[in-house]
């Protein structure tokens, strides 16, 4: 008899092994697309110096105390940044939730029930003819009271739950890097707006100075007309030029208001005047920026690290989706007390109940949903690879562009400074020549106009230099630390 039982057990195990083998052989397998992390050795130069400005903290990168104060305020009050911080909290809670999924669930359960069954039913007939004791019959209706502890646990044999938790961790880290990239972008946007505001102040000062020069020229032309040495046309042309620059002054003033309000929005407060130091803007020194080597972008840029974490999460999601093809193994157990009257709950072992169940469930027919989820996970992994490679390429191109921009702006600024110097000297020269009737009034007008435009362009070039310095700091991955 024992031999027959052993034979049956072996047959059962053999059948289970065959079924598992068939299920395993039906699980689809796709080759993961590998990411390309290769970057050039340098930024279009032969320099391979690893000194990198991205390692400088933003408090040391910026020297203007007013700008530093604005950034400090924005890091606390900016609404977009605070929204991102809440997303980090959500991602952290998701990690905790998935961690708990592969641990046993233990529940405390208590209940009370009342039931009345028909007398001409199986249960009713049994209760009618059955006595608990000689002196006590079944109560009608029948009540039931219970209390106990019950546990359930899905054995994570295929690491589905643990890989799901690891994927949540990767998503959490990606969210943190997303926050760091937002900090970098926010700091860069505040700095660029601040430099634009200071540049507008300097342009306003230039317009005021030019209006004073043109006012003096207008007085001179009027005197020339009284002496019959100039015409009414010259007077009207000079007046029109003065009016033009007066209207330009209000345009610049509106730009100042809008730039101030943009800064106020970034730091999370209602419109107020922005404290700033606009003096010696033109004389501002542009410090040297060290780009390091392109390979450092993989560690310094938060957006590249974010894409990397999202790629790792996508790889883990494939493992989770593949594990859905395998059988899931669950264990359920419970122990407690149950009786039809509360006074019998403590009467053990009669009121004692316990249970233990183990089950194995595997998908066999109609696995389209599981296959679709697996194919979707693979498609997302390929998408994440392209996103990662795109972020690396984009980072390299941004740095290369800004390095070239800094060099070209430096050369442009030097030439424009010489232009401003020449045209500024031409204003006085043209005025004297006009007074001596050696040139026409139109040459004086053109000289003053060209001098104003060149000064305005010089301010804009200085602003572009400061903005380019900030942009390359952001492109290198600085500012978030």
Automatic annotation (TrEMBL):
Keyword field: Coiled coil, Lipoprotein, Membrane, Palmitate, Transmembrane, Transmembrane beta strand
Primary residence: membrane
Bilayer topology term: Lipid-anchor
InterPro entries attached to this UniProt entry: MdtP/NodT-like, OMP_efflux
Subcellular location: Cell membrane
Residue ranges that the Swiss-Prot or TrEMBL entry lists as coiled coil: 406-469
Family: Belongs to the outer membrane factor (OMF) (TC 1.B.17) family.
Name this protein carries in UniProt: TolC family protein
Source organism of the structure: Maribacter cobaltidurans
